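note to self: dont lose this again. the chain is below, predicted strucutre after it. 290 aa total, dont forget to put it in the shared folder this time
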Amino acid sequence: MECAGFTDYLNGRGLDQRTIAYYVGHCRKAEAWLLLHGANLDNCRATVLAEWSRTLPNSHSTRGQVAAALRHYWHWVERPNPPAAAIRVPPQPEMVCRTLESDETRNLVKVALGWWPQGTAVLIGLYLALRRFEIAKAEWSRFDDEFAWYTVTGKRSKTATLPVHPILKSELVDRDGAGWLFPGRLAGHVNPATIGQWIGEVACVAGVENLTPHRLRHTSLTWANDRMGDLRAVQAFARHSNPQVTAGYTRTKVTTLQAVSRSLDYLESNDVRPGNSGNSCPCGSGGDAE
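---
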């Protein structure tokens, strides 16, 4: 396959560079396997492509991304009736809420306060709900003069301006600097993997197990929805295009489920309450209705 031309096509479709790299990589791997089996992406049959797809992880994300990459390729080469359906994409698994409990979150914040840069990375994750790479790329210039708002550019180059919590503001205002919040040792910003290590250090001291940067984001969005009950507002804060994605970050609390049950009180206060009234079925049948 002609990688330069395909890359130019993907750029023309408005895809970001990370996605382009993934798509080109997937197509190159498929082409290499097909060539070993006497075919290529321009002429392969569905049965051969299905055989190659069985070498892929059986996950929604991987197979979905591969299928999207091949659809783009076939559109670019104008292949008629491409065997796109030969790659079976399993259903997307239901997202599991991984929020921290109240005591864990309070302990984490207490430990993080005043601990630069490790604790500050944790506070940014909790109070701005930023992703790991967004924390690593944080810049002083993206805060307004009052440290009341922060402008972040995230996935798919989507930019949003978020309010800064007073606790996070108090941690940053006296450190007001220039360039990256967390500069790397050589140049540029710190590696996103380092953000994960810092968060792990703070979690260890706070007694929180299995803490990841994304779990901080889960906690931020879940706490917000628990207290506000406004999924649309939380969606805007999370910068999700699809509200169903935001819903995956939320939870149904036990008290909420109990409230649902209590709301199903069909009888009024003066109606007969549970108990056998002796009424019989007018149809004369004692069996179960179908």
